[in-house]
Design goal:
five-stranded parallel sheet, 5 strands
Amino acid sequence: MKAKSILLVEDNPQDEMLTLRALRRANLSNRIDVARDGQQALDYLFREGEFAGHDAPDLPAVVLLDIGLPRLSGLEVLERLRADARTRLLPVVILTSSDDERDRLRGYLGGANSFVRKPVDFAEFAEVVAHLGIYWLAINEPVAPGPAMK
């Protein structure tokens, strides 16, 4: 069985660094790939654009998706993931600083599996990210790839 990975979609370098550090502190040695805008995330997952011709890795165990991204917003990325049979069941956690109820509602209506607001305090942020990583990589039981995901 291949090791599970995470796709972090985050345009803020500081938040990216803090998220990666928190996952490492939780002793998660899984691969973490980073996309820095919405289009890059889709290109990575669907092997298009800069990733065309690269070997397609297994889908990540979870996508940690910020909302406020350049090129395509996180909500637009979520919409495209849910519209494609290959990624329809891919777990997506919106990890954002937004506290807007409309964003939360649009995320869940769009098919997000979870909506997590980034705490301002680093220790709290690290704890939240560690819990997310442990849950999605070690506890959650995903659907095996099959006809719905191909």
